[in-house]
Design goal:
Elements (H helix, E strand, L loop, with lengths): L5 H35 L5 H18 L3 H7 L4 H4 L4 H24 L6 H15 L14 H32 L17 H37 L1 H4 L7 H16 L8 H20 L11 H23 L7 H14 L8 H15 L4 H10 L7 H20 L6 H17 L6 H32 L1
Length: 467
């Protein structure tokens, strides 16, 4: 492994700053959706609203765990892409971050609600696909297509869910809340009744917290990608986890897999079967007589990470195979052992989580006006009412919270803007939507993936040639 030269140190700092800047933009781009309702309905003063939302975003990141973060990291199989040259790792993360920042900043400047999640996923896929064009590249294995499909499905479904559930939520409001004031447009400068304000404070807070919990984790995942790519030896393993406890998990996985009936295995199942056995044996040898990763030679730590990646991913894929004959009891135990074994490689230092929390929180407090105006006035032909704002935010917070629980990245922008559109349709049908704004948002939604894939892939090949 390479040591950190002055040039590498500077590039590492630049990459970390870019990651923080991406999350900063994410704050005033995506979280503007959360504060749009309370600001537009005069329920909170703008300065109070953005500070309130920023603090809850900060809290959401701190309490959100790292499941979504690891989903981002696992989109690119780092063990397959890293070749020991840190400059190649820098080319990877710089291309990813620069392309994501360009698209995010551009759509914000135009006042278009666009998804930071969509942008990030497109940038990651672009880099994976660019490996096809490198000499001796790993080709299709440069993208974790199983994870990409799950992530893509979550991003595809989220606006449809937001739109549909907001219509249902508006009908529920109509059924149970007869006070007509909640269905009227806000009067400029006039505060709504206290109970409406409290409802909107609550829904704004929920969206902000769950946004931090989901989108903040994406920033944590970005930082971990940077650290693993540039300093793979130092950040391959969690130094606080006992290696022998993980060995017990690895040994259990190996024994459960070894005991299965292999007569129905195909080529892929056999490959995973033998990969698990090979890497379990190497892990056992490498950690013999050692308790923590600090006792492992720096040059060997990344190899241990590869062992754990191959073992856990191989077991996960075997569990999904129809040819893997195993009892329900053993399947449950295998899932438990795999989850426990991943603790050694799926982690984030506290300073990473705090750094992203601060970046997202500060970003929330800046640059919100452009998106607030679009959400409040330009989606529907009528300005947003109190009930419409509350229904959209309830739906968005539920959707984002559920996605975070399942470890799936989902778009706050898509959930909320589609929720606003659904609430408008619930009032007067499709004719109540401003076609121009909807077309612009839809076009940004459609173009985000192809544009960021091409941009990040091109930048990656350029940076690889330069660095």
């Amino acid at each position: 492994m390479f040591g950190l030269t002055t040039a590498l140190t500077v590039l590492l700092i630049v990459c970390l700053l870019f990651a923080c800047f991406f999350e900063f933009i994410n704050g005033f781009h995506d979280t503007a959706n959360a504060v749009a309702t309370v600001i537009y309905t005069n329920s909170m003063k703008p300065t109070v609203a953005v500070v309130y939302s920023g603090l809850l975003n900060f809290t959401g990141v701190l309490l959100g765990g790292i499941t979504v973060a690891m989903g981002i990291v696992n989109l690119l199989p780092m063990d397959a892409l890293l070749d020991g040259d840190p400059y190649h790792g820098i080319a990877l993360v710089l291309a990813l971050l620069v392309s994501a920042i360009i698209w995010n900043f551009g759509t914000w400047y135009m006042g278009i609600p666009s998804s930071s999640s969509h942008t990030l996923i497109g940038s990651i896929l672009g880099i994976g696909l660019a490996y096809y064009f490198l000499p001796g590249a790993v080709g299709g294995s440069a993208v974790n297509w199983d994870k990409a499909k799950d992530t893509g499905l979550a991003l595809l479904i989220s606006p449809l869910v937001g739109f549909s559930l907001a219509i249902i939520m508006m009908f529920i409001f109509k059924r149970f809340i007869k006070n007509e004031i909640i269905y009227k447009e806000p009067i400029p400068g006039k505060k709504p009744p206290i109970w409406i304000r409290m409802l909107l404070w609550l829904t704004c807070g929920m969206v902000s917290f769950f946004h931090g919990q989901n989108d903040g984790q994406k920033g944590v995942g970005l930082i971990m990608m940077i650290l693993i790519a540039i300093l793979p030896a130092q950040f391959s393993l969690d130094e606080k986890i006992n290696l022998q406890s993980i060995h017990a998990n690895v040994d259990a996985i190996d024994k459960i897999v070894a005991a299965t009936d292999t007569t129905q295995f195909g080529k892929d199942e056999f490959k995973r079967y033998y990969d698990i056995k090979k890497h379990a044996a190497h892990y056992h040898t490498a950690i013999e007589g050692k308790e923590f990763s600090s006792e492992i030679a720096v040059t060997e730590r990344f190899e241990l990470r590869k062992d754990l990646v191959k073992i856990t991913k191989g077991a996960d894929k075997l569990l999904k195979s129809a040819n893997f004959a195993i009892s329900l009891k053993d399947a449950d135990r295998l899932k438990h052992e795999v989850k426990s074994a991943k603790k050694l490689i799926e982690f984030a230092p506290s300073w990473v989580i705090i750094m992203i929390s601060v970046s997202l929180g500060l970003g929330t407090m800046i640059g919100w006006k452009r998106i607030v105006k679009t959400v409040g006035e330009k989606i529907g032909k009528q300005h947003m009412s109190y009930a419409q704002g509350a229904s959209a935010e309830i739906v968005a917070s539920m959707g984002i919270g559920m996605a975070s629980a399942y470890g799936l990245p989902v778009s706050t922008t898509h959930m909320l803007s589609s929720g606003i559109a659904g609430s408008m349709v619930a009032k007067k049908g499709l004719k109540n939507l401003q076609k121009g704004t909807i077309k612009t948002i839809a076009l940004a939604w459609i173009l985000t993936l192809p544009v960021t894939i091409v941009l990040s892939g091109g930048l990656f090949l350029l940076f690889r040639a330069i660095l």
